Amino acid sequence: MTAPAWERTLDVRTAEQTHALGAALGAQLEPGDLLVLTGELGAGKTTFTQGLGEGLGVRPGVISPTFVLVRIHPNLPDGARPGGPDLVHVDAYRLGSAAEIDDIDLENTMDSSVTVVEWGRGRVEHLSESRLELDLVRSLGAAVPVPAGTGTGGLDFDTDDDDEPRTIVLRGFGPRWVNPPLFSAAAEPLPAAEPLPGAGPGTMPAPTERNS
Ligand SMILES: Nc1ncnc2c1ncn2[C@@H]1O[C@H](COP(=O)(O)OP(=O)(O)OP(=O)(O)O)[C@@H](O)[C@H]1O
Ligand SMILES: [Mg+2]
Known about the structure:
By secondary structure, this protein is an alpha/beta fold. It has a single domain (6-203), classed as P-loop containing nucleotide triphosphate hydrolases (Rossmann fold), CATH 3.40.50.300. It is built from four helices and nine strands. The protein has a seven-stranded mixed beta sheet with strand order 1-9-6-2-5-4-3. Strands 7-8 form a two-stranded antiparallel sheet. The radius of gyration is 18 Å and the shape is globular. 37% of the residues are buried. Magnesium ion is lined by residues 45-46, 64, 118.
């Protein structure tokens, strides 16, 4: 499947909002779900996944797995969703192809877990008939040209933990994601570039039921 069923664009202003978005999504994911995260170094993929882990109620400690390709975070009996899915966190940055992905046997854990793949685009789509794609980008204008004479010159991309706006584009593919996830008002990372479902599911593009 090449065309997404829907696309939503969210603006997040802080790392905390990115985290909260992940937590809100983690609260409603199911075993078997596949998330493909795309975004440049430091875009916030791991920050988002940390929130996701919290919403799933899995063992904490989500990090950018620099040398470890896959980390499994088991669901905690005293977490947010006892008995819910585990989190399998993959960094596919160094994996060149779908064939190398197959070597790490994600199929084994897929059905009982939520599988999140940083740098997964073009590498993991074959693992499931459905997937949620998230593109994290520094919002337009976040790279502020430093005025001449201030010393640093050039583009000033933040390299520390300072909050910067990000735009997160979600796209749903396959029967699992005929409908977009709904975010509660509390976790709503407003403002959004598009209407959000605060007004109810009726604001969503009318989905077409597909049973096969
Ligand atoms: N709005 C924001 N959303 C997410 N992170 C933000 C935001 N503003 C600032 N940050 C900071 O940007 C950094 C994002 O780092 P993170 O490790 O999540 O990125 P990444 O996409 O996983 O990078 P990598 O490709 O290196 O694994 C953190 O230091 C975070 O505090
Ligand atoms: Mg990362």
